[in-house]
Amino acid sequence: MNNKILIITHTQDSFSIEKVTEFIIENKFEVIRFDVDLYPLKNQLSTIFEYGKWISYLKTEHHKIRLDDISAVWYRRAYNIGTGLKEELETKFFGPAMGEIRHTLFGFMESLDCYSLGKPSVYRRIDSKEEQLKIAYKLGFKIPETCITNDSEEAKRFILEHQNVVGKMQTGFAIYENGVENVVFTNVIDEESLERLDSLVYCPMQFQKKIEKKKELRITIVGQEVYAFEIDSQQSEDGKTDWRKDGVNLIDKWKKTKIPSSIEQKLLNLLDVYNVDYGAVDMIVSPEDDYYFIEINAAGEFFWLDNLLDDHAISKSIADVLCGKVPRRNNTVLK
After folding, report:
1. Which of 18, 178, 204, 330 has the fewest CB neighbours in a 10 Å radius?
2. What is the pLDDT of residue 249?
3. H-run or E-run covering 314
């Protein structure tokens, strides 16, 4: 039996990788770490078809490792691919080279004929907030009244119809100015915002009826395990509309909680639809105790919640899924 687990990440990833690695080693599996920010300058990746066999190798500064015989892969992050390449190439070659690098790397990930906890194609699909909401509604979740548009007239009609509305981007939208990253968080649409709706023609937005919050939930699902945490984000002036605005100060205010079994089952059904074994779900509980689905993150962060558990149960669950110690959804290339 193959006992190698490939983790695809980058050198600056959080220490949650180390904790999962510890549990994988406890399961008597070997861990191979592929840091994509070292590719292609410090890591070389080769796939060869010869004599009726496919073989893949990862060559690092110290080792040459065979990758076609791994038992599972965890595609966690693909940040900063090609670090240092811009300084090595003429400007006219950099763009085309990066395109080929990404195409090769993501093609390799897609083609791995083993169990995958995450794939580029899966992440791209789950990135669709519109599909998320449509699937969640079909599964029986409550969702906020929603309008996704670049039509200023339609947006204004929706906002006036529902009065209390928030606006958000569908991606990790950020504006970089003078080397500083300014993330665009969820914001309440006020009169001043209404006057600027004409700019929607350049960039669509998502508008939703604001759900009053009794508490916010972050629910991490790994395989068949559901880990629910809650926070009273209304205790923070900055975090009332979007807890991430005050995420640093709220990070130790989260606490483990129970959710209704019907909600748990719907969350597992959601992962069944996407055929994935990991998802980080954001939900809102209203003052009337209604549970509203907001979104699912295919590779959402979990380390700060895992640190609240004495046994690091989330990391252990990820390791157990990768090692095949617990039931998992079959997503191999050739089933």
Report:
1. 178
2. 60
3. helix 313-322
